[in-house]
Amino acid sequence: MLVKWEGIVIRSVDYGESSKVMTLFTRENGKLGVMARGAKKTKSRIAAVSQLFSHSYYLCKAGPGTGMPDLSQGDMLDSFRDMRQSLTATAYAAYIAELLDRLTQEREPNPYLFQLLLHTFRYLDEGRDAEILCRIFETKMLIVAGISPQLTACVNCGEQREPYAISVGQGGLLCPVCQPSDPYAMAVTPSTWKLLRLFQVFDLERLGDIEVKPATRNQLKHVLRSFMDEYLDLRLKSRAFLEQLERMERMTQSDHD
């Protein structure tokens, strides 16, 4: 049986001398594996559509069982060429793709997540702020994982009293009265928690220009990564590389300053 899916390649692993096993995130069926036979051959018709991050229509042969479908042909929609040519954008894209892969199950349709990934890659391809796009994506994935911080009022007493701190252990904002209940609560600026709250409900399609100060960027990253490290057992190779790249960029920036 032939099936057609719109998908984005979020993982690609060599298989034998000439083939690849691709992981697609599809609009119709969520995440699924596809065998791309002969994709590594230079003259293969499916070489381009089997590249990591490719957004294409995929025509696959699917058997009656649960075996892996075979890719028959593909129709490229977007290769995100400019994104690939930027080391920074590619590093963020790899991290985003791996995070999505690790936090989703096979064949669970989620058109919202497909659109989120597609818009994130399009913005990266346009040269938009990769770091902020990553923070938005992480915020959305915390919701998917069921560990999203509570950012509308104090998670302990329910009151709306500033200045807030953020407690990873208690799962959200703590007002000044309740902050002693968690000695490890993170002091954050109003800009940080308000941006995080915005990212939770924000429709990425409506993204405009977001100016974020370096100190706020650091706090956003620290809060989000703290929640992931506390509640998710993830050791992402792409995150290690991205953090190494970020350190190198900070060193370069300080040299210029």
Automatic annotation (TrEMBL):
Q: Which SUPFAM superfamilies match?
A: ArfGap/RecO-like zinc finger, Nucleic acid-binding proteins
Instruction: Name the InterPro entries on file.
Output: ARFGAP/RecO, DNA_rep/recomb_RecO_N, NA-bd_OB-fold, RecO, RecO_C
Q: Where is the DNA replication/recombination mediator RecO N-terminal domain?
A: 1-80
Provide this UniProt record's keywords sorted from A to Z. DNA damage, DNA recombination, DNA repair
NCBIfam families in the record = reco
Query: Any idea what job this protein has?
Result: Involved in DNA repair and RecF pathway recombination.
The entry sums up its family as follows:
Belongs to the RecO family.
Record's protein name: DNA repair protein RecO
